[in-house]
Fold this sequence. Notes:
Distance between the termini: 33 Å
Mean pLDDT: 95
Radius of gyration: 21 Å
Number of helices: 14
Structural class: alpha/beta
Number of strands: 12
Order of helices and strands: EHHEHEHHEHEHEHHEEHHHEEHEEH
Amino acid sequence: xxxxxxxxxxxxxxxxxxxxxxxxxxxxxxxxxxxxxxxxxxxxxxxxxxxxxxxxxxxxxxxxxxxxxxxxxxxxxxxxxxxxxxxxxxxxxxxxxxxxxxxxxxxxxxxxxxxxxxxxxxxxxxxxxxxxxxxxxxxxxxxxxxxxxxxxxxxxxxxxxxxxxxxxxxxxxxxxxxxxxxxxxxxxxxxxxxxxxxxxxxxxxxxxxxxxxxxxxxxxxxxxxxxxxxxxxxxxxxxxxxxxxxxxxxxxxxxxxxxxxxxxxxxxxxxxxxxxxxxxxxxxxxxxxxxxxxxxxxxxxxxxxxxxxxxxxxxxxxxxxxxxxxxxxxxxxxxxxxxxx
Length: 341
């Protein structure tokens, strides 16, 4: 299948599997796994932080960051459409007793500064204490402007707040902008980096921050059930991805652009956007009712939504993109003819 639903669907290559099989392991809860320790140190150094902590998922990494930064009853500011707020099961409220304060996200993925300021609560016992601002980069494939992130960090410092970056696809941002990872992380109090999306590892995220922050995070990770034993086999897959797969993200971006250009030429398609490895397109209602089934029958997986997302990744080739466009062109041409009769 040509799976365009997400960049989480990649399969580990044989070379990655070999690296996993060779991993030296220990008990990571005891701090004895050398592969985990080396990988955490490597990621932290690349991101410009003192320490790192391996997690089984980005959701747990983000939640742990909030719990390590905030106290029960505190509030954090995040985007209305951000993954941390909308797509992580309400964990901050359910498990951490934290109050989210969502902000409408601007079209470019930023949180308007004036809305952020307006949402910050004054020191008053009637209000939850505003403690942290969380950003996401990339957001729906869009790279946050570097000057904007620095403005948010400066604003947080002005109001005595902490900052967390959900950098699930921050490597895509680094490749797209040509900036090193540490430049995109600079100034944040913590950053979560995912290795099971575009980089193609089967599992794994790393939370980076100061040594004292990571010590608190390690305790909360255990509480949340994230303490792992011979986790070096996971770290080895992530380390292989870090060493060998980052540059390949540029190919994903090129394939997404090729796909976007082809979709834009289809009859009836509106509102095309392409950013890094994501393409968004709005299809007529009549198309959406049967498009996913038709594509599936041709060996192509998409998730039909009002604004359909197509995500390229390392398991998608240029030939796959061309195949998708041929099938979609045939389908849209037939649909356009049927609706005009």
